[in-house]
Amino acid sequence: MGNEYRAKVFKSGNSVALRLPKGMGFSEGDDVVIAPHEDGSFSLWRESEGAQVLMRLYGSVSEGFMADGRGDTRADIRDWNARPGAAAA
Q1: At the top level of its lineage, which domain of life is listed (predicted)?
Q2: pLDDT truncated to tens, each residue of the chain (89 aa)?
Q3: Residues 18 and 7 sit within 8 Å (Cβ to Cβ)
Q4: Which residues fall within 8 angstroms of residue 3, CB to CB, at 6 or more apart?
């Protein structure tokens, strides 16, 4: 794990804000993506680095990931001859 940084949340108008330490490498005007996680933590990265973040996540998937399928979906039978926009029977 890299360096640990601490910051304080403060009120800014009708919002709350987080001032990031300069050592984190963000610059004024950077567009940042903030992704909340179910456990209450979050990740953030520069919007311009989205493709690199995706590739790091893809590379972190274990070899057997989804070997048995998703297990939560089923494929519906579709009538591919139906008119576009027509309700399914």
Answers
A1: Bacteria
A2: 567 888 889 999 999 998 888 888 888 888 888 888 889 888 888 888 777 766 676 666 677 777 777 777 777 888 888 877 666 55
A3: yes
A4: 23
- The pTM assigned to this predicted structure is 0.48
User: Which of 69, 79, 18 has the alpha carbon at shortest distance from 87?
Assistant: 79
- DSSP, collapsed to helix, strand or coil, labels residue 14 as coil
Domain boundaries, the chain: 9-58
**Which helix or strand (DSSP H or E) is residue 79 part of?**
none
Nearest CA to 50 out of 66, 30, 25, 65 is that of 30
Tokens of 62: 């274990």
